[in-house]
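Pasting as-is:
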Amino acid sequence: MAIKEIFQKFLGKDKEMSKAEKEESIRKVIEKRRKTPNERELEHRLEGKRQEMINEQLRKM
């Protein structure tokens, strides 16, 4: 393989990755906009409790 072909191959993968990352960030923004402030607060509290449970289980080990 020529160096030029190798660079093209890697650049193509980089473009695919950056496209996927952009789609992911857009998806997250859209999800946040759909939720009401109450839903976001509830989700935040549930995530905190979930993290507390995980930490408690790790301490028991």
